[in-house]
UniProtKB/TrEMBL annotation:
The lineage of its organism: Bacteria, Bacillati, Actinomycetota, Actinomycetes, Propionibacteriales. Its main location: membrane. This is NADH-quinone oxidoreductase subunit L. It is found in: Endomembrane system; Membrane. The chain crosses the membrane at residues 54-74, 81-100, 106-126, 147-167, 173-191, 212-233, 245-265, 270-289, 309-330, 342-366, 386-406, 448-467, 473-495, 568-587. Its EC number is 1.6.5.-. Residues 44-79 form the NADH-Ubiquinone oxidoreductase (complex I) chain 5 N-terminal domain.
Length: 588
């Protein structure tokens, strides 16, 4: 009964968010103060909300994806349903708080609540070691970035003499304060959105339930970083150094993550690295510092929410039906194309999602990706080196994205001609390799509660590109389509030959976790042991010595108290004689 009630409340809250977005659509931008007070003499901290076009856009994205996730979870989740639904609802509410905030401190509250909810949801299957480790890693790495985020709020608020977002003016701040404040905020954005160098937590968060992954990757948490920069865009565009740092981080991240996705062997891990890469494309658009760049980034955020939420929910169907989202476990079915025949709805919807991600012409991702490329091209033509760097990075990333999308699609859904290479090695050691086709009766589509969200998000992944008005630069469209083909053809060729080579460097994801282990974890543990040893052996030694000295002194005084009057008189006489001798010596 409790689980059913919580599910109804969860779906209802998500629908309420959608209704709120619909009611606010077309309303004039406004700010409303809820509460406030002075801290000290001159600092006024208030909690205010605002409505504008960006608020409506994000509320629609959050509401639709959250409703799909809540509905999908009814058929997906069977364990700890009540706590899960409560946390997902709180997670959604925290993102809504971030979206509607016109106060930096109110935004911070929603920002931090999302971090706590993500920790609890990623670790939902707490009996699994990988889930516990992934949750702790996500919590620590995002908290590390949030330290800079908090200081950034203080710097901007004190420099602008207000903590109201709508009241912050770049021309009223000194250049050093503006640059420092935006850079500190960028540290928090990098942590929350899993950008280099704080990117490794997101792929390791995959042991969490698939609908949680869809919510984190599509509408909350990682999307909050893009939203924040778009909300404070006037401040960021006035800080050239910050935009340059953002562009460098974005370009490095999109290429790094795309390379990792090309070698990953788990469906959800491929999608996780894809999210890191696609977020970097949004940040790259924002780093251009132009109106077109901001518009393109938000457009890609909208389409990405649809197709990435769809892909994670499809991965959840595979996990739910087959038992694992890894290529190496799916091989019994993928070798014969069983999944495509047994689950046609999942196949079609996931095909649409991967096509949108790869930028197939006509799908939503094609339009939004091209809008970023076009914004970078316009900026580059104005003589901007930054524009050229962004343009080349996005184009190369587009080709690599097509590669891992086609690779994933072929290996999961189509008959493998001949297994060789890395996966062939797994197949050679598989004791079930010589068995006949698996029993397809064990494979079937899930209930409509899980399929309905797939269909809704697939419609979005196919049609959202047209809501912005069909504006196509045919030259850029031709170039990006050719780049996608250049990425897709090698993936098809490798699959046709049954090969899936993964260089050791890529398979180990450039050894970043190992490097972090040696550079940070090992030294921290060493210093922790040193601190413990110093506390135990030095400071604790002094404390223990003081206590021991007191004990010995009391023991000595105790021995003097013998109860023998003759001993007391003798001691008194000796004392008097000693004092007399001492007085005589001093007097002479």
């Amino acid at each position: 009964m409790i689980a059913t009630a919580s599910r109804v409340i969860g779906v209802g809250f998500s629908l309420l968010v959608i209704l709120t977005a619909a009611l606010l659509h077309g309303v004039d931008p406004q700010q409303v103060e809820l509460a406030g007070s002075y801290v000290g003499i001159h600092i006024y901290v208030d909690f205010a909300v605002r409505t504008d076009d960006l608020t409506v856009l994000m509320l629609a994205v959050v509401g639709v994806v959250s409703a799909c996730v809540q509905l999908y979870s009814i058929g997906y989740l069977e364990k700890r349903v009540a706590s899960y639904t409560a946390l997902v609802t709180l997670f959604t509410a925290a993102m809504v708080t971030v979206v509607i905030s016109d106060s930096l401190f109110l935004l911070l509250i929603g920002w931090e609540v999302m971090g706590v909810c993500s920790y609890l949801l990623i670790g939902h299957y707490w009996e699994r070691q990988d889930a516990r480790s992934g949750a702790m890693k996500a919590f620590l790495m995002t908290r590390l970035g949030d330290v800079g985020f908090l200081f950034g709020i203080f710097v901007l608020g004190l420099a602008g003499d207000t903590f109201r977002i709508s009241g912050l003016r770049a021309d009223e701040m000194s250049s050093p304060a503006l640059t420092a404040g935006t850079l500190l905020l960028l540290v928090g954005v990098v942590g929350k959105s899993a950008q280099v160098p704080l990117q490794t937590w997101l792929p390791d968060a995959m042991p969490g339930p698939s609908p949680v992954s869809a919510l984190i990757h599509a509408a909350t948490m990682v999307a909050a970083g893009v939203f924040l920069i778009a909300r404070l865009y006037d401040l960021f565009t006035a800080a050239d150094a910050t935009l340059t740092v953002l562009a460098i981080v974005a370009c490095v991240t999109m290429l790094f993550a795309a390379l990792c996705a090309m070698a990953a062997v788990e469906v959800k891990r491929v999608l996780a690295w894809s999210t890191v890469s696609q977020l970097a494309i949004m940040f790259a658009g924002l780093s251009l510092g132009t109106k077109d760049g901001r518009h393109a980034a938000l457009f890609h955020l909208l389409t990405h929410a649809a197709f990435k939420g769809l892909l994670f929910l499809c991965a959840g169907v595979l996990l739910h039906q087959v038992g694992s989202a890894a290529f190496v476990v799916l091989r019994r079915y993928t070798r014969r194309g069983a999944l495509r025949r047994a689950m046609p709805v999942t196949f079609v919807t996931m095909t649409i999602g991967l096509g949108a991600l790869a930028g197939v012409p006509g799908l939503a991702g094609f339009f939004s990706k091209d809008s970023v490329v076009e914004a970078a091209w316009d900026h580059a033509r104005d003589g901007s080196t930054l524009g050229w760097v962004v343009l080349m990075s996005v184009c190369v990333t587009a080709a690599m994205t097509a590669f891992y999308c086609v690779r994933l699609w072929l290996w999961v859904f189509f008959r493998t001609p001949a297994l060789a290479g890395a996966l062939g090695a797994f197949e050679a050691d598989d004791p079930m390799a010589d068995l006949e086709d698996p029993d397809l009766s064990k494979l079937h589509e899930p209930s409509w509660l899980m399929l309905a969200p797939l269909v809704v998000l697939a419609i979005g992944a196919a049609g959202l590109g047209y809501v912005d008005g069909v504006h196509v630069n045919w030259v850029i469209a031709l170039v990006t389509t050719v780049l996608a083909l250049f990425g897709a053809l090698p993936a098809y060729s490798l699959w046709q030959r049954g090969a899936d080579p993964r260089p050791v460097l890529l398979e180990r994801e450039f050894g970043v976790d190992t490097a972090y282990q040696r550079l940070f974890v090992v030294p921290v543990r060493w210093f922790a042991k040193l601190a413990v040893g110093g506390d135990r052996d030095v400071i604790g030694g002094y404390v223990r010595a003081t206590g021991r000295a007191g004990t010995l002194a009391s023991e000595g005084f105790r021995r003097l108290q013998t109860g023998n009057v003759q001993t007391y008189l003798t001691a008194a006489v000796v004392g008097v004689v000693a004092l007399a001798v001492l007085a005589g010596v001093i007097g002479s």
